Amino acid sequence: MMRRFFTAEWVAVLAGACIIIYLLFMKPFIGVADNGDFLRVMGTIGLNYGVPGESYEDRFFGYSHQYFAYDHFFRGFYTSTQIILVAAARLIGYIFHPSAFDIRVMGALFCILLLAATFILVRHNKYKSTIVGIVLAICLLLVFYDVAYLAYFNSLFGEPVSLVFMLLSVGLALWLLNQEEPSKKVLWMYFIAVFFLTCSKIQNAPVGILFALLGLRFMTLRYDLSWRRLTMWLSVSIFVISVVMYIAAPKDLKNINLYQTFFYGILNGSPDVPGDLKELGLPEHLSVLAGTNYFQTDTAIKQDAPSMKEDFYDRVSHKDVLLFYLKHPSRLISKMEFAANNSMSIRPYYLGSYVKQENKPSGALAYTYSAYSEFKNKHMPKSLLFITLFYVVYYGIAIFEYIRRWDRHSRIRTELMMLIGLVGIIGFMVPIMGDGQADIGKHLFLFNVCFDMMLVVAVVWLAYQLVNLRIFRRSRW
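-> structure tokens emitted (477 positions)
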């Protein structure tokens, strides 16, 4: 019985649980301060700030919050699968603590999902080698249990949804590929994970299309008609949901993104603002807004002024952004360089980790178990060249593996590894195209998750090659 649990996957789960308990459920409380994004979630799900009359400085940016007040549902409406998870946490929290909502209930739910992802990934990716399983477990524990990732769990940000369901989507795909006869139960679990990932944020909508295409590849894993029909139906459903997720985005949110993309993106630092406005078919008097963001209060023209509808919002779309950058590739590369310069920080360093009651300075950050995130932020090259070279090496090895392996399961597994990189590209480009330079480091969260997953894949692949080389040499002797 003990042997059954003394495996790499169970040891990884036990170690992960210990890290989680120490960081998130023991004093001092660690979370992430609100930057204003909590409001849309709280308004939808029936929560509110726990301290009425709290000052702006205490409520935003400087301090995290452990307790929130219960309030009326649907004071606003935010479309996201995050709402399902927060609703579940709210219900559980109310049962055990009806006077206030403890955000650690939300954190516990994310932790369970992360532990499940860890178990699945290690169990179905160790290639019958204990050493490879141990290497993978260590990598997952070092990287994805870093406080920069885990602190998000004790918050109402949407980033943890992207993290846990990206890991689960990949893990469940590997589970399918490792089954002799892939089960419909695991197939459903895979598409549910993809659904939660895709619909967690509008910027994740294109990700669903990639996973839907991979889903079509699963049709070839079994030959019975019911399997093929189910796989086709689920893949098409995710594809349609991804498209609808973007099209049905609230007009107000689209307007915010358009403003950020044009005035805080294209026109921010432009060498010829009037010329750009003319090319985009916009009136020249909007030049006073170049370099401003939607949430500034000191702009010459208010972002929601009635004139802005006719002069700006009704005239442009993200299609115009794409066409502009296609005509001016050097401008796009410049924005990509800016993004790359902000791409190696997993967490926003301007949002505090501690509650005010801990008597720490406003904006103080937790650095316990932060070796990986701090190394990444301080020592990994923050340049487009480094990211490009990393991708070239990663895809070079992936293509090599794809060519030399002829069996269907191995090829689909390699396609899955390449898909991680494509999701990373989406996570890198969508913030540039959809939100300009606004809070770019935080918006590159999905890119960071994918970059880290690619790094783990590379280390595990190398460990696998070394193990095989050792076995080969032993067999020769």
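The chain has four domains: 1-178, 196-249, 251-327, 328-344+380-477.
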